[in-house]
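Subject: two folds for Thursday's group meeting

Dear M.,

Sorry for the delay on this. The cluster queue was jammed most of the week, so I only got both jobs back this morning. I'm pasting them in the order they finished. Each block is the input sequence followed by the predicted structure tokens. Could you check whether the formatting survives your parser before we put anything on slides? The first protein is the one we discussed after the seminar.
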Amino acid sequence: MRREDSLFHNISSIYGLFFNIQVKHFTHIFNNLKNRFDLSNYENIIDIGCGTGAMCNVFYEQGLTVTGIDLAEGMIKTAKKKSIGKDIKFIEANVLTGLPFADKSFDVSISSFVAHGLSKNERQIMFDEMKRITKHLVIIYDYNEHRGLITDIAEWLEGGDYFNFIKTIKNELNKKFIDVTIINANIRSALYIAKL
């Protein structure tokens, strides 16, 4: 288990405390963007790095068939607890070692605040795997160029590739995908939407 994997496994119950706040936040984001970006045109979606399943619950409430994957066992357990009574599939899996799905299994794939924590090479692996399993849209929901000091400190402590990610994400996606649109979700985050 990588250091980040065990970290997220160990803090999954703490993340679970913020589940309702996250659901409200994601609902607000996707409702505000409906006129520019509407997921109701699609049937199913996979959330890669789903954490506690908050975003999965939002997509489920919008009528999508939802699958969430995470490599942290604790996150998957928390997601299942938070989604009792909802037909959301949660699977422990690692996008970097290959996902247990056939090519073009999902209309849409999304990954929220995962890419910045990966190295550039790992991001390329993730993008390729998302492209493989997706029919229509690959979405990276992550930081934009508007950085904040608290975020900088937290990301420095986490040890991911946040600082390089901010500089290179647009170029990385444009090399990998033909049609990429960037929509700011709020002051510090954006949806990087690649059409297939």
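Second protein, same layout:
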Amino acid sequence: MTTPLATQPVLFIQGAGDMYQPEGSGRLVAYLARELSTDYRVIAPEMPDADNPHYQPWRDRIEQELEAIDEVILVGHSFGGSVLLKYLAEGSHRKPIRGLFLISVPNWGPDGWAYQEFAVPNDVGSKLPALKIFLYHSRDDPEVPFAHLGYYQERLPTARARPIDGSEHSFLQGLPTLVEDIKDLPR
């Protein structure tokens, strides 16, 4: 008789703004929870001051959530993805990460939106622990230009880029490729 696998935690960090608004990250969270089923536990904390976000409070909240999880899959949407990436590049998290999934992530560097508080270091790829990274971005994203995907492809050369046809930012109807990639991670 085999022992069933434990439920895998998936920490989802929302984009900026109220995640329960019609265009917020909440619909993608609900989709993931439904599609990943009972083998996974999607954790999606409401982030502090989401309508006027700042890096440090979001970083602290991520760290607080991760302290309670031994091995995790990380999913970051938009602003949340950039905060996750910057946090991981700082190198303070030491527990295992099974995969990092970044959706519609903006480039905050000088050749992007030029907002230093949220920018990742230019050598972000060399600062991350060894882990599988996936990048999702809609070709006609109405909020974050598709060129921002290229920025991360250059800095994260081992990442698998998943350009998505269409004009989604929040993937309100879901993101099947994300679900497939999460389920394909070795357990």
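Two things I noticed about the second structure. The first strand starts at residue 8 and ends at 13. The helical segments are 26-36, 55-67, 79-90, 124-127, 147-155, 176-184.

Cheers,
T.
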